[in-house]
């Protein structure tokens, strides 16, 4: 009969323990653990590089033009190419949106195409197309949010302050539409790419609660296939008095967004929302030191654990 009170919890003296097969297994265990340590940084960096958004214009926004109506229907309406496209996602019930919207009203709209989206069903001016962009195309989470050139994302309390500097730092380089014009209500466009053309109809809209207006709120969207580069939009406009924004872009989604805020609301890549478990395991390599430390401690305690296991087996054998 073995008195377990006399047996030490962790006997590190291997010479007193009858370890035969276990000793031969130790090198294989150590080799396996070492290989795991060596492959962890490689696997981590590979996953990070695959998940990191790429700043590739051809994979997202390609070209942008805008047209302010009304124009002379008996002549060719002149379209303009902006330096940047700014998409704002807000809501009339959103209190933090007010100060940001007032700031957006000060932008130079001759140089910037602004699209104001209301993706919330609680708004009277809710637009299902805006919700589709918010949920599916960009996989956004927060209101208010700003998307620059379908690539950069600004969130948080400082997004308005950071917008001007972000526009300076980002080079849009729009090109792809060889020509685009509206003649007598018919849209003509040509491109060397195979992408479809999206047209946003923007109107000046009264705020639901405050005594102010949103100058470029999205009220409708029309998508023309690449096969149809001549389209009569006169009935669609129906005496429309606002701005049209023409966007040539890749229709694949979700589109990759790069967070450019210094203090974002929730630090998260938004281009991969299909697998929520990724957020639990993905990291930028900062956990590698903790993992290696854990493995080293495990290896240091491995002889003691093996010895203790053998003592348990020995006790069971003596009991039998």
Textual characterization of the structure:
The chain is α+β, with helices and mostly antiparallel strands. The protein has two domains: 1-24 and 286-320, no CATH class; 60-281, Glutaredoxin, CATH 3.40.30.10. The protein has seven helices and 13 strands. The strands form three sheets. Strands 4-3-5-6-13 form a five-stranded mixed sheet. Strands 1-12-9-10 form a four-stranded antiparallel sheet, with no helix packed on it. A four-stranded antiparallel sheet has the order 2-7-8-11. Helix 1 (21-51) packs antiparallel against helix 7. The longest helix has 32 residues, at 288-319. 24% of the residues are buried.
Quick description:
By secondary structure, the chain is α+β, with helices and mostly antiparallel strands.
Describe the structure using short key phrases.
320 residues, alpha+beta, Glutaredoxin, five-stranded mixed sheet, 7 helices, 24% strand, elongated, disordered N terminus
